[in-house]
What we know:
Blueprint: E1 4-7, H1 18-27, H2 31-38, H3 41-46, H4 52-55, H5 57-62, H6 69-79, H7 85-96, E2 101-105, H8 109-117, H9 121-124, E3 127-130, H10 131-134, H11 141-151, E4 158-162, H12 165-173, E5 177-180, H13 184-194
Parallel strand pairs: 1-2, 1-4, 2-3, 4-5
Amino acid sequence: MIRAVLFDVDGVVVHPWRFRSLLALDYGITPEMTAPFFRGPFLECMQGRANVIEVLPPFLASWNWTGSASDFMAKWLAAENAPDHQVLAVVAAIRNGGVPCYLASSQERLRAQYLASDMHFDQLFDGMFFSCDLGFAKPEEGFYRAITRRLGYPESELLFFDDALPNVAGAKAAGWRAEHFTGVDQLRQHIAQYLK
Length: 196
């Protein structure tokens, strides 16, 4: 029996990596240039231990970004406002069938707030679990354990979809049922299988 279905954000319910392409094409800021930020201070932001607006400025200077950290974040959030409406239709159908759906994602605080309010995911899902609130990011065991405690369901009754295999493996290690998301057709097949 499945009591709740959980979804990753980027690569599942949101088309991913649009801002990365925009930075490279419009500003000449390549993934190689931004890697020290995303592999360093940004990890602390995702776990709720740092504020992205406060840690960004030194990196922006090295990237020759002429605007403020707030300008950078505004462009980032807007570029990633790309919901996958086919996946969201599947989510709506699951909820209409009486099974609650949740987000389970590694996010820093500003993006988490944007997803909830500006993208209206607080209305499209029954709840949202973000690493910045939990203190753990995927695929850390603490991420899945914290969500399990908050939901109050047995681990085996939770179904999770993520496009990153390490996150799927982390969920399975925590006792969840988990599937690697590769597209909406495969998602529909899994939902039909698990919720029949």
